[in-house]
Task: structure prediction
Amino acid sequence: MKKISLHNQIFIAMFVGLVVGMGLNPYFDKGSAFAVHIVWWMDLIGKDIFIGGLKMIIAPLVLASVVTGITTLPRAEALGQIGGKMALYYVGTTSVAVIIGISLILVIQPGNRDASKEVRAKREAVLEKHRATFKMDTGRDPLAKENKEDYLAFLALQDGAPPDAANKLSHMRKTTEDVSPGELIKTQLLSPMLTNPFNSLANANTLGIIFFAVLLGLACLMLGESAAPVVKLFSAMNDIIMKITLWIMELSPVAIACLMGSTMATLGFGALETLGWYSMTIILALIIHSIFIVSLVSYLATIRPVFFLRGIRDAWMVAFSTASSAATLPVTLNCVTKKLKVSDEVAEFSLPVGATVNMDGSALHEAVAIMFLIQLYGGMDDVSVTLTMTNTIVIAVTAVIASAGVAAIPSAGLVALAIIANTVGLPLHYIFLVLAVDRILDMCRTATNVMGDAAGAVVVNYWEQKRQERQA
Ligand code: ASP
Result:
């Protein structure tokens, strides 16, 4: 009997997971012990074993692959050229993603739809109630903003979120308060880069691992013969980790069915309905951006779109179901080198960097989410910000910068949302509205992030080939 190919197995698994999850959703919502039990098992296989396994190898993989990528490049100055082009490509495509997102939200106006107006009216009523209670208790109006303490105490009162979410919120508030662009670059990029490498490895701080790996690789290149054993060690380590990846991938069909099943059973599509226009705007923008990326890669690297899409489908599906670019990295590396014929050195260097800093989908999502919240709540008594041209530009620029600092793990984009909200002056508790649909949108944006990384590797590989041909 003909063996079903891995991507078809994954595809079938996604479908089965979706159907089973949707079937379980009503029972899970009613608190049925059976449904809760099944979801527990699905989480065990999907999240704890499969994602856990992929996460286990991220830190050594990033270190080994970046060092190997650099040390196998023909010459040290090639690194500078490749690095420069890559940076340009990443910033360019991420900016396009943000522009597409902003254009769509301005056209569709999800925050000004009838359904959204109802949400705003409800919010205004709650706000008035809280304000009256606060006034009665303290004799002061918290929204007069004369007293910052009162205002902050009032904001804390608004959280009304479940305890762990409220904790997260106050943590976000502390870490993102008053961030200037300089501070943003310092805390999001510089400090994680200049961290003790052993700490970075232990905490999967990919930015720190990459920076150290680049230095290590460059030093090896310069030392030549005396560093040869280290180069060999990392290269062997790289091969070993790719082998382990293939073992973990054997689990992928079952694990992906479980991941989809548990997500759908716990969320259902109901969440999408409540924030329908908002979710639709993001999904549509992500689709348009993906079409742009596929066209760009086929134009720049002269390959057929179908060839590219076929080559990345395993990585795309794993990204969609795990919502983590980092966890998908081993699979992306495999797809790009085996199916898209990108050279090992370019893939090993560009993909870990791409998975860490090139987040087209996340940047798009952040810009749209903040603009949606301002469309919806802007100008209310406790939200002084409105959607002006200046604010739109600030949101776009901050989204591009903040996305580079977003960790490549599920829901990490929410921290960037908090940063942008703070920058434009949107009170943080409003972010909770979009949390309800975040998991599903995270799956979509992560798939776009990974597609962008793969496209980047293909383009850089093509440029590098051309450069080598010119020099030959
Ligand atoms: N989950 C995304 C990723 O891993 C990051 C985000 O939350 O935006 O690419």
The radius of gyration is 23 Å. The longest helix spans residues 33-72.
